[in-house]
Design a protein that fits this description.
Layout: H1 3-8, E1 13-16, H2 20-24, E2 32-33, H3 43-47, E3 53-57, H4 61-71, E4 77-82, H5 83-92
Parallel strand pairs: 1-2, 1-3, 3-4
Amino acid sequence: MNIKQMIADKQGTIVDVRTPGEFMGGNVANSINIPLQELEERIDELKNLPQPLILCCASGGRSAQATYYLSQRGIDCHNGGSWLDVNDYKTQTI
C-alpha cells in the first residue's frame, strides 16, 4: 500500500522528524513531532504508537534516515517524504 492510500484510509500515525522549531513553523494536522536526534531515546514511545508510522521532514532526507533506523528495530514505518507532500495527501482525503 502506498503512502497516499494509508493516509486516505487513516492508518497509522504521522511522525514529523524535523526540529521543534521547524515543526512549529508548519506541520501536518494531528501529526506528532519526534526529532530525528531523539528517535533512539524515544523508541518505546514510537513502538507504542498506532502503526504504520508515516515519517516526514522538510525534504525526505531525515525521514529516510528515520525509516531505515526504525525499520531495523521492527517498527512498521514508511518514508512520506516532505511534510508538505504528506499534508497535501491528508487534505485531499478530508
